[in-house]
Design brief:
Mean pLDDT: 95
Helix content: 10-25%
Order of helices and strands: EEEEEEHE
Low-confidence stretches: none
Strand content: over 45%
Distance between the termini: 10 Å
Oligomer: single chain
């Protein structure tokens, strides 16, 4: 599966606000590397107010790292999504402990 690397630090407009990828991590887990993107999500215009929260998205195991670009010049990596729930829990625990992010999502 392809992962298009977003520009770190650049706000991306969403329905009720925007999100900002802040950094990419390459975590070691069971002899493999896992891609994790840390960022913030900001809600500016919703019916019940606004707010900011941190997030971590885990596209999966890194198969090929930034080996090509898309038409906008953004790097593309190949990842293998992590389906095993026990492995997801282990990786999420590591992210929560090291990055202090509670909202961890897997592809």
């Amino acid at each position: 599966m392809e992962y298009v690397h977003l520009e770190v630090g650049k706000d991306i407009t969403a329905l009720a606000g925007y999100y900002t990828p802040l950094k990419e991590l390459r975590l070691k887990h069971n002899g493999k590397e896992v891609l994790c993107v840390i960022g913030t999500s900001t809600v500016e215009s919703s019916c019940c107010g606004g707010g900011v929260c941190g997030y971590a998205i885990v596209p999966g195991y890194i198969m090929n790292w930034k080996d090509r670009e898309n038409e906008e010049g953004l790097a593309i990596s190949d990842v293998e999504p992590i389906a095993d729930k026990t492995t997801q829990q282990e990786i999420a625990r590591t992210i929560r402990e090291n990055e202090h992010i509670q909202n961890v999502s897997f592809w």
